[in-house]
# Entry
Amino acid sequence: MNKIPGNIISRQLQLFLLAVMVIVIFKVFYGSPDTFILKLFFDLLVGAAIYFLVLALIRFENSRSSTPLSLVLNVGILLAVMFFIIMFSDYLLSGIFENIHLKISDPGLVYNIVSVIYVLVFISIISFFLVILRHFFYMNQTRSTRIYFNTMLVFFVMASVSLNLLGEGETTFIITTFFVVSILLMIFNSIRNSWIAFLTKREKIYLLVLTFFITALFIVNISNSSGENIYTQLISDFSPSLKQFNHIIMIYGSIYFFILFFTTLFHLPTAEAYDRKAQEVTSLQYFSKLITEVLDFNELAETVTEIAQKLSGANASWIIWKNGAKLNSVAAKNIGFIESDKISGKILERITVEKLTSTKTFNLNEKYSDDDSENSFSMVSVSPIKTRGETQGVLVAAKPTGQIFSMDDLNAIETFSDYASVALENSRLLEESIEKERLEKELDVAREIQRKILPLKSPEIPNLQISSVFIPAFEVGGDYYDFFRISESKLGFVIADVSGKGISAAFIMAEVKGIFESLSKTIQAPKEILIKANEILWQTLDSKSFVSAAYGFFDFKEEKLTFARAGHCPLYLLRENGSREIKPSGLGLGLSDNINFNNSLEEYSIDLKGNDTIVLYTDGVTEAKNENLEDFGDKLFMNLLHSNKELTAEELSNKIIHEISVFSSGHEQYDDITLVIFKWQQKI
Amino acid sequence: MAEFSTSVKEMGDISIINLKGYLDAHTAPTLENNFTQLIGNNKFKIVVNFEDLAYISSAGLGVFMAYIENIRENNGDIKLANMSDKVFNIFDLLGFPLLYEIYKHEDEAIKKFSGS
# Structure
């Protein structure tokens, strides 16, 4: 409440207090007004006081957002207070004013002040009634709500002041008309009570009792306030219009609560059905929200069983979910997993998950319980949860022995299991796409690593053309090649293929690069370098990973190529009078310890002649596939190389890549493709 | 990519795994499961029949490397048989014939186990 801007409240209260002060002054100076003008002025004053008080109360009421039931209770309390004030004012005030009739004809200051305070209490009470009744009325807000209510208020005021201002006589029919119209408007405005439909059965019973007593109190207070007692004397002496207004509000209250009582009464028989429908609607709303919000399968399953349990009025609920070939109980609500598994077992004796297409109920005659008889579930309903058109799980709801599922229960749970299927399917699809996205991100990283590891461009050597092509596969294949300037007259090179794919292959690639970069600086012989590399990789790689590699170097002075092959694809030598595949023996790196590795590894040397062309490649080249899943193959590759050996290194590599892309245009590139071509240009 | 499946049959204490289809990084877990299960059941004498295998990638080769050590420590072995030329070439290139016994026919591998 302290959130309300103080100045607004105080402004309305200030105006109210101002009106009250003017009333007091008026009373002291003029006593009871007797001329028409004075009467009108005084009624205006009282009206203004009520008006400002009502405004302040509306603001207060809106700020505390109370429920209709608590407002009804407030009315009851105020009525009781009012009842006691009227009852006891006779005893209390007659002590102060020995003879009320004398006082009225000759009022003193004390009398005036006491009567103003007394009247203010009633003004406050009826203002509050008015605000609460207005609140109820505004709960069914339509376009004309305001007009109906304000029209009624206008007639209230007219009916109140007309008697005082016009007096009795020829104009009585006007007074009567205002009064009758007021009553009619009250009845008309009291009929719309649809808010009680949204109460639960328990709340309706509570409301029924309250409205009964409230209606009774209203009627008692009305009859009390029309008899001959201090209350009537004081208030009609103060202002006859106020008395009339008070009367009208009391009548309005009694009519409203009388109608409310009967409306509630008629709502009672359907209350339970309404409760269930309301629960269904809220559950389904809640659930359709879930479909779009909950992403996690387990979280969703928990919610599904929770709602299923509520919807079907069951005591326990869980899902039997097919996980591969196994069936597990998941998301058990109100039941232990051991017990639910036991009941699941009994259910699965009677149904086959895959064949369940609609909701069924069973009475498992036997009792299933840990120790106490309270949790012995024997009535169960089972509903299919389908994903991709197949029954993937069973939603189970269980009731204790002796209880049964009504048709309503079953309809609700059947509908609900359809919703659950959609939601669970959604969450599965989402998980898949998140996983896919994660993999793609990972592959982006892997490709980035690979791009940074590979040389930006081939070195430029006077009498050696070098061309290198690398085409990455979508899933990084782990291809690696590099060149090392060992000295002025020597150029080292390596080509390697890491086993596996993706980020793990990329990391091994990085390790391999580091190994060859450092080894090539200190060791010259390819065989030795590969032995060292194997020693390191045998220790660091996990047992299922390995690397195929070929390392060698050109000696421009000696015009010689020396290399060794560790499980890598052969090297091709293209030469005028005899192209050939060179495949010295050698195990892949990281496959075996050094004893095996050393024994198998051969080093090979070629004396370079004429325009010898040396071709290095990875298996992505020869295993490139066409739409029939046939390989590009060694033979085709060798033939292509041989028949195009006159081309420059650059042209030859373009030619090969072109042929591969034509061949494999009908099939996705599955592995990295690396092709490195050296062409020797002998000095003449 | 393409499909891959395995089937395991028992012949006394020797287990024979038949491979079918494409063995690569994506399908390797199927074969890994076979090996894990056999090892779990203390079946260490394993023959792998490659007759219906169309393709094997480096990740597929890795599966054999992953279990061989454990199996040999338990006096068992993985023997390979019925490879097509194409599949054999892939094994050969990496020097696998140095590490594994590779037989033309399954029976020879089984005989080798029984003999020893």
Summary: The mean pLDDT of chain B is 90.
